[in-house]
Design brief:
Helix 1 packs across helix 12. The protein is of the alpha+beta class and about 725 residues long. Helices cover about 10% and strands about 25% of the residues. The protein is globular. Strand 20 and strand 21 form a beta hairpin.
């Protein structure tokens, strides 16, 4: 049986008589948690990255696509995705508890992101990484044209890659790292800054980390807001988006469910999974992308419940022995479809006729979710770690489709959302495409907690992303970087789930032909590096160093450790300007101080850390390396950010910029081109001053335990001024809520 939708009837129905269920002839089957063990190696990654803030023009090229689009908040980022922060732009994303901050004119590639490895590539610009936790077996690596940085402890790491790729400045504010180059390795520790040239660890300049510049100050303010997060008491810091909950809702204790979070910045009649869109993101398939600036954690972890006439997010227990597992959308689809079954769908009144539709609602506490993709029993148990014991008065069984209609939320007001199948598969706005739904028809419906077996079409991959004319300069794609691991082929190029859905006839009439990618581009073919000590075969663009064949090296070619040596080897400003992308103008030489109103905002939103938060607000503390596991310098608990904080406290101006208000607060003045003056060790290309910027993010905590709602701060980013270089009609509605 196929699921091709050629079912439009000529009979016109009123909107009130909307729904008739598709006949179901079978039940979709998936392995139960007690089934024979499947190959865990086939499980998808537990982690994704989330873009949670950007100001100015930030663009994205998802894996598998060849065109740049304007970035949106909350789209999951995974292996193969690329980001570009254009002139006068900044961005912040999180991968687990690790915060990644990009300054302007920065190109970032996610080379590999899975349960154990975070591997990033920076071919130009500035990236700062705050690694809060680095448990045994975890790897964090930044690849640049000159060195590969491998973190050996939690810390605060920064790389500044020259516009022409000729040098990379590495700064460690906290923690320790090993730098790799051709045939060698070099140890760096907190408080150091070194500029590397070539690919053999040659040092152009070395010294102590300088005073915080404007970008560092902005980072410090963001870190402090996270450190003070109230939601970290109840949610693991490994769940991206926990920090955005504070200013957008309140926590309360509820019998049977424990601590729940209630959003306070939503409109009357709001329901989860109603304002956003669907996108196809391999290997998970159909993925929910919410419009709310806080809309990540509550839609990919935990469950929702309708309590006392309002919706509440139930995060579930924090399991300290293992990190949480990301899910693309924790919903049940009306008509079945659990595990990607063919039997699903609803009839909707569309333009006076009946057409194919897709309907869903949020799963409730204790209700298991059944992935459509391959998974092992261990994965199933972990992703459903929400106190599941008995479900629907029976034990969990193989049948994914529930025929008893006993889901907790199915009768809650406004819980069920329905859209035409065309709108679903093309990633259109759900709020705009939604159609009325006759909930009484559920009496004879079958419901599946999984995903509909519809194959993606071309529009499915971009979803609501708008095409952009701005992206990373094409030359950067050819720039080679030093790495210690060969890049993996992104799942977008071996999309077995899309292939299965397409083979099963999962096609929506009029939406376009299914698109299935099963072959990787030629760029992933291995190439040898003859004559390079310790180098191994790797895809084009990577010089992979074999760690087993390198030897420690000293400060090769370092002219000295003072400011004089740094100045003597500073990059040529004219050369930097010549290589700036998109015709960037020369940068100002004087570094601006944070604006006065930013200092006030920071003061007003400095939430004090609650007593006892070390025990309750740091669930990721279990990830710290055991003392006997490795010879690492002692460091304070990662959750308290004890290493970077002394630098922040000592260097940052009083009344730090932003203070955790990313949505509405103004930016700190950006960095200058320090290399133009180059008297100090920080000889890197620095951004020009940020003019009035368009900012996208959720507000950070207000200074009280129960944060007040900020409706004015929510849903109006299009009112912010735009970067001067971008026409107003090109980006003004990019992130409206």
């Amino acid at each position: 049986m196929t699921t091709t939708f050629h079912r439009i009837r000529a009979t016109a129905l009123s909107v009130s008589a909307v729904l008739a269920m598709m006949p179901l002839t079978g039940l979709a089957q998936v392995p139960s948690p007690t089934a024979p063990a499947a190959a865990a190696a086939g499980d998808p990654p537990d982690r994704v990255a989330r873009l949670n803030y950007f100001a100015g023009t930030v663009t994205l090229e998802p894996a598998g696509l060849t065109d740049w689009s304007y970035a949106v908040l909350n789209r999951p980022l995974t292996t193969g995705d690329q980001l570009w922060a254009d002139a006068n732009a900044r961005a912040e994303l999180h991968a687990g508890s690790t915060a990644l901050r990009l300054d302007q004119q920065t190109a970032l590639d996610i080379v590999n992101l899975n349960d154990t490895t975070t591997q990033l590539k920076v071919t130009q610009g500035t990236l700062s990484a705050h690694v809060r936790a680095l448990p045994a077996g975890q790897n964090f690596e930044i690849d640049t044209p000159n060195v590969a940085l491998v973190a050996t402890s939690p810390g605060l790491f920064r790389v500044d890659v020259a516009a022409d790729g000729s040098s990379t400045m590495v700064t460690l504010r906290a923690g320790n790292a090993t730098l790799y180059g051709d045939g060698g390795s070099f140890q760096m520790s907190a408080g150091q800054q070194i500029q590397f040239v070539g690919s053999n660890l040659q040092q152009r300049a070395a010294g102590s980390a300088p005073a915080l510049d404007a970008f560092d100050q902005w980072i410090a303010s963001r870190d402090r807001a996270e450190d003070n997060s109230i939601s970290a008491r109840y949610v693991s810091r490994e769940i991206p988006g926990y920090e955005d909950l504070d200013a957008n809702g309140t926590w309360r204790s509820v019998p049977n469910y424990g601590e729940v979070w209630v959003p306070t910045t939503v409109t009357t009649g709001w329901a989860p999974y109603h304002e956003g869109h669907w996108a196809w993101v391999a290997p998970w398939g159909w993925t929910w992308v919410d419009d709310a600036p806080w809309g990540f954690a509550p839609f990919h972890y935990g469950r929702w419940a309708y309590i006392d006439r309002s919706w509440a997010w139930v995060p579930g227990p924090v399991v300290v022995t293992q990190p949480p597992v990301y899910a693309p959308a924790l919903v049940a689809f009306v008509g079945g479809g659990g595990g990607g079954g063919a039997h699903w769908g609803v009839d909707l009144a569309i333009g006076g006729a009946i057409g194919a539709g897709v309907a869903w609602f949020a799963l409730g506490p204790g209700e298991p979710w059944h992935p459509a993709y391959h998974y092992s029993p261990t994965y199933y148990n972990r992703i459903n770690n929400v106190n599941i014991t008995n479900v629907h008065n029976t034990t969990i069984i193989n049948n994914v489709t529930n025929i008893h209609n006993t889901y907790i939320n199915q009768n809650a007001p406004g819980a069920i959302t329905a859209v035409p199948a065309n709108a679903f598969v093309r990633g259109e706005s759900v709020a705009q495409a939604a159609r009325p739904f006759n909930a009484q028809a559920l009496a004879h419906a079958q419901i599946g907690a999984g995903a509909p077996a519809i194959a993606p079409v071309q529009q499915s991959f971009a979803g609501a992303l708008r095409p952009a004319k701005v992206g990373a300069p094409a030359a950067l794609a050819q720039r080679q970087v030093v790495a210690t691991r060969a890049p993996v082929v992104p799942a977008a190029y071996h999309d077995t789930l899309a292939q299965r859905f397409a083979a099963g006839g999962g096609k929506v009439a009029g939406a376009g032909e299914p698109v299935v990618r099963t072959a990787a581009p030629a760029a992933f073919a291995a190439a040898a590096h003859p004559g390079k000590p310790g180098a191994v075969a790797a895809p084009a663009g990577f010089r992979v160093i074999n760690r087993a064949q390198v030897r420690p090296v000293g400060p090769q070619g370092a002219p000295g450790h003072g400011n004089e040596a740094q100045a003597a080897h500073a990059p040529n400003p004219a050369e930097q300007q010549a290589h700036a992308p998109n015709g960037a103008a020369p940068k100002p030489q004087a570094e601006e101080q944070p604006r006065a109103n930013e200092a006030n905002e920071a003061h007003e939103n400095a939430v004090p850390r609650p007593q006892g938060e070390a025990e309750h607000a740091q669930p990721e503390a279990h990830d710290a390396r055991p003392a006997e596991a490795g010879a690492q310098p002692p460091h304070a608990p990662e959750g308290e950010h004890a290493q970077p904080e002394p630098q922040h406290a000592a260097e940052a101006p009083r009344g730090e910029a932003r203070g955790g208000q990313p949505q509405q607060a103004e930016e700190a003045a950006p960095k200058q081109h320090a290399e133009e003056a180059a008297p100090a060790p920080h000889a890197n290309p620095r951004p020009a001053e940020h003019p009035a910027e368009q900012q996208h993010a959720a507000p950070h905590p207000a200074p009280h335990p129960a944060p007040a709602p900020h409706p004015a701060q929510h849903a109006q980013p299009q009112q912010h001024a735009l970067p001067e270089h971008k026409p107003e009609d090109e980006h003004k509605d990019e992130h409206s809520h």
